[in-house]
Specification:
- The complex is a heterodimer of chains A (113) and B (115).
- Chain A has strands at residues 9-13, 18-23, 31-38, 45-50, 55-56, 61-64, 70-75, 84-92, 107-112.
- In chain A, 0% of the residues lie in helices and 46% in strands.
- In chain A, the strands form two sheets. A five-stranded mixed sheet of chain A has the order 1-9-8-3-4, with no helix packed on it. Chain A has a four-stranded antiparallel sheet with strand order 2-7-6-5, with no helix packed on it.
- Chain A starts with 8 loop residues before the first strand and ends with a strand.
- Chain B is mainly β and 115 residues long.
- The chains are: A mainly beta (113), B mainly beta (115).
- Chains A and B meet through strand 4 of A and strand 4, strand 5, strand 9 and strand 10 of B.
Chain lengths: 113, 115
């Protein structure tokens, strides 16, 4: 499986935008880029996913590099509730891949009031 | 409300005493899965199920059993728990379909301590 690389931790001030990077230089053409986050003492929750084009939803935006070897999760205005571990995960979209989510260590985001 | 529920949320037990952690989802999902989360090791898949009566091993199945007799339930069974199974356990579910855009929904977790 293609792997992802994320910084161990990041800090942001409350109400500032946050850009969480993810490198995935061995991504294949059928891999989707998924982001999940895990708030303290909770199970992981889906944030966003994309293939080639940038994506927006109510929680965040996903910016994907043209060569797809990296991506950035953007939280437009960080709140205290956004303090969590964010995981960047590649999933094979060809239909042949498994449904298993392979979690790395993720990025622990701290939000400073 | 769409959700995955797990019971119990916390459990302290002793080595060798059989236990079951229940998982139930109300979204009519075909796919269900169990993960364990340990410090420094992240989340690892234990078992998964693609539908009723269809289960398969994940990355760390040793010491665990599962069953899928009904679509909504996917219990995790530890026949003879050992201290190395002390962990935080998560159940997850999703729909099936072509491609893998299917969001997985996770339960709140069960913290198990085996003495």
């Amino acid at each position: 499986d293609a792997k992802t690389t994320q910084p161990n931790s990041m800090e942001s001030n409350e109400e500032e935008p946050v850009h969480l990077p993810c490198n995935h230089s061995t991504i294949s053409g059928t891999d989707y880029i998924h982001w999940y986050r895990q708030l303290p003492s909770q199970g992981p929750e889906y944030v966003i996913h994309g293939l080639t084009s940038n994506v927006n939803n109510r929680m965040a935006s996903l910016a994907i590099a043209e060569d797809r070897k990296s991506s950035t999760l953007i939280l437009h205005r960080a709140t205290l509730r956004d303090a969590a571990v964010y995981y960047c995960i590649l999933r094979d979209g060809s239909g042949a891949g498994s449904y298993q989510l392979t979690f790395g260590k993720g990025t622990k985001l701290s939000v400073i009031p | 409300e769409a959700q995955v529920t797990q019971n119990p949320r916390y459990l302290i037990t002793v080595t060798g005493k059989k236990l079951t952690v229940t998982c139930s989802q109300n979204m009519n999902h075909e796919y269900m899965s169990w993960y364990r989360q340990d410090p420094g090791l992240g989340l690892r898949q234990i078992y998964y199920s693609m539908n009723v009566e269809v289960t398969d091993k994940g990355d760390v199945p040793e010491g665990y059993k599962v069953s899928r007799k009904e679509k909504r339930n996917f219990p995790l069974i530890l026949e003879s728990p050992s201290p190395n199974q002390t962990s935080l356990y998560f159940c997850a579910s999703s729909t099936l379909g072509l491609g893998v855009n299917n969001e997985q929904f996770f339960g709140p977790g069960t913290r198990l301590t085996v003495l």
